[in-house]
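Sequence, structure tokens passed on for absentees:
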Amino acid sequence: MSTEENPAAAPRSLAEALRGRDDAALAALLRSRPDLITPVPTDLTQLATRAGTRASVVRALERLDRFALQTAQALAVAADPASYGELLGLLAGDDGDPAVSAALPHALATLREQALVWGGDDRLRLVRTARELLSPSPQHPSPTGLGPTVREATAGMSPGRIQEIVATAGLPSTHDSVSAVTALTTLFGDPERMSALLDEAPAESVEVLERLVWGPPYGQVTADPAARLRWLLDRGLLLPTAPGTVVLPREVALRLRAGRAHRTPEPLPPPVEAAATHRPQVVDATAAGQAYTALATVEELLKDWDEGGPAVLRAGGLSVRDLKRTAAALDTTEPVAAFWVELAYAAGLLASDGEADERYAATPAYDEWRELPTAERWALLVTAWLTATRTAGLIGGRDAKDRTLSALGPGLDRSAAPEVRHRVLTLLAALPEGAAPSHDAVLARLHWERPLRGGGRSTAGPDTSATEDRRGEDLRARIARWTLSEAEMLGITGRGALSAHGRALIGAPAPEPRSPTQEPTGPGDKLPVHHLTHHRPALPPPALSPTQQSTATAAAARLLAPLLPEPLDHVLLQADLTAVAPGPLQRPLADMLGVLADVESKGGATVYRFTPGSVRRALDSGQAASDLHAFLAAHSRTPVPQPLAYLIDDVARRHGHLRVGAASAYVRCDDDAVLNEILADRRAAGLGLRRLAPTVLAALADPAGLLEGLRAMGFAPAAESAEGDVLIARADARRTPPRTPPAPVPDGPPVPDDTLLTAAVRAVRAGDLAATTPRRTSAGDPAGPGELPRTTAAETLATMQAAVLTGEALWIGYVNAEGGASQRVIAPVRVEGGFVTAYDHTADEVRTYPLHRITGVAELAEDEG
């Protein structure tokens, strides 16, 4: 039994309480508060000190659920120490609440596990820092709405005034202020006497108390208070705290509240129920369709940037104009386009090229990604989304310096995002298959689980409100809303319900099959949620480790693969110069068709249109007219229409008739009549053309501008090299150097694994043993508690040699090569050559120490030897 549970050995401090824990309990503390082992403390006293620092306590309070936080808030306004019965009364009230009574042991165990509360049930103590953060004050009113106690409120009041209040309240006068305040406090805590006093109060005075009872407890009064206020002030039911300010004492408020510290205790999490239900097969099919659309959208985005994407802003990121152009190219809204851009960046498929004229482009990883099977490409995207701290929903908002947050720019990392995404999907996984919850129910549950967490950064304190947007919604809630929307776009959910591959993605087990009576009969049916009716709410499951996530992602890809459509190897050519792809196309076919034709419409079937410009684009890429005829004949289920064959032959016949090269630029053609036609055309005036020879024209424009200008005039020029060879234009030539995807910004220290926890607990125990082991004292050992022993080299050597013969353990002071001093308990085995070999109880292993680095030695006390 630990000392926290044994009244006979009640701990006197948090360090003693931690010393009474077993290794499993210490490991649980370090797992729930990983900042305590960064770095590993030397002993339990240092661990307790670190656990009481403001930054660590704030972080621990932020991770409490609603009822555990309400329990801590109740302890902050209770006596110090408080009994379990007193705490239960503050939470359940005079009438009692069965749900509170059932949930309180678990909430108290959570606070104890996280070292926010220590002591037995008869002497519960809230860590002093937490009490200071949660206690009421005029600057930071308590979340309970309670004011200071009578003793605190009357601390600066004159003894005469206190005696007047006591007399007016009907109490006998006392000889000192302390006893008078005690009598007044006893009166306010007595239900019967308090009821009798309030029965005498005027109705207007009772109304004043009712306005203050649930907080804030402070009010303003004039120098000459009204009669209803004077009646309360004379009896101490309101006490002055400053000129013009009065407060409702805590004891009075608790009596008016029937003993409750909170207006509405929330021992149970709000249920997440199904707002609509669908057949699981429909959900999976819908999600698979969305997954395929997501892949197509990312490909379309990066294909549009193949020849070099938008420029990088000087401050980093994408300009508003370029985001609008991207949204138009993807035929979607700007926020959705920003999400796809950020997703490609998080997955490492998109980055800046780092050149002087810095632009965004696809990375070499994009080409590798395109060659993966479809399901694996989806898995890579959703894994990047799950773990990314960059939050696309913030784009377009303002940062702390009132600067606009841009896509791909700085300032978008929110460390809470991965945790919120994982938790939202976990809540969906807890519902039956095909069940879709309402967004508000999910948000309410998340707020109950983390009421103090407003975002990825720690709040200034638990008494401050979370970071909010203009709608009054904190960042954590906004991330949850974005998660529900983004999961639908990625195909993790379908029609609002989690798909089978979505469950596998987060490592959630398949739900138990429903009985026939629970089968939904329509989209509006609601399903019971049995897992939320217990009194001990389960803690949110932790996110998966990288190894577990890799396994879960592979399982999700395997489930998704059969649901994805098989790529087709054919199209349907039509007489109106269009081709219809009745489904997704195989990659070589899609790539070639994307060069030969322009996409006219998308949907269940994609419509491509052939134009002179698109055919010329295919010829520019190195294809011949015969190649294009053969390609269409091989991949069309319908005969090649005559208009399309004529179009290809006509463009091919004129293609390359003109040749453009670098002079600054020139045009050459064997047919001087064509050059005469160009010179005579008014549209050629801007090109600065002049004849150098019957078959050659020089231009002021550069080769690219000359090509575009001649094409706009209806010609089909071809670019040529300095050797006179035709240059082949390839659209996929631009790639960035190899780039690493952006690393997530962690939300504090990572949760330690079992190996690190075991080593940390072992090190803390050993250090505590060395710091607390009693030792014999002597006149030559002036070292006090916590100080290193000091003995001469001769005394140290003699004591070591004697311990080798007797097998006794010794307490030593040791200074390492870096100058770090420590205390150790060792059992010497051998002393020779200026070294002592000993079993080190602190490190739990045999070590060798240079004698000249041992500052002193002392024998352990006999009862410890």
User: Anything to note?
Assistant: Residues 1-8, 455-472, 514-538, 779-783 have pLDDT under 50 and may be disordered. The longest strand covers residues 821-832. The CA atoms of residues 626 and 802 lie 101 Å apart. Residues 280-304 form the longest helix (25 residues).
